[in-house]
Amino acid sequence: MTKDVVIEHGESSKAPLVPAPVAAGVSRAVSIADVFLRFLAIVATIASAISMGTTNETLPFFTQFIQFEAKYSDLPSFTFFVAANAVVCTYLVLSIPLSIVHIIRPRARYSRLILVFLDAAMLALLTAGASAAAAIVYLAHKGNVRANWFAICQQFDSFCERISGSLIGSFAAMVLLIVLIFLSAFALARRH
User: Fold this and answer.
1) pLDDT confidence of residue 21
2) Residues 176, 44 contacting (CB under 8 angstroms)
3) What's the predicted TM-score (pTM) here?
4) CATH assignment of 31-190, given 1.20.120, 3.30.360, 1.10.3470, 2.60.40?
5) Which residues cross the membrane (predicted)?
6) Three-class SS of residue 63?
């Protein structure tokens, strides 16, 4: 004897709407995408940190004995940018094993919740570092006439190209972290 259950409008059932093998496959695909995006974010953050950290340019002034030098460590915002990218890169490397666990055990819930919180914290740190550096890069390109800060990018063009390029990698990593947070939230929402 089979018992037919009729669900009226507004009621819910404990039975999943998607069969278990299909749901596990979707969760596994989300976990694989998570690992892949983490690797991309690692590449973006380490490239940004290295690009900014190795940036310097020297210009001669009248003679070779008197020179002007521009390097990232002259500005605390750039130093913070390098440190923030290094910290986020280290976090992403350390979070890879946990992401691999989600491929093996797609129903792991608490570890994914921890990743959402830590990803959000790293996104905030990366945003702060990139924003601070972007403000200085803007001043380097445009200057500020009211404060008598002159644009230095006309003289230090190689320096300015590298610091601008390092911002691109950092902002790309920010977008990847946002996607990672959404993927983890999606995976958590599918379990309820």
Assistant:
1) 53
2) yes
3) 0.79
4) 1.20.120
5) 35-55, 75-101, 113-140, 167-189
6) strand
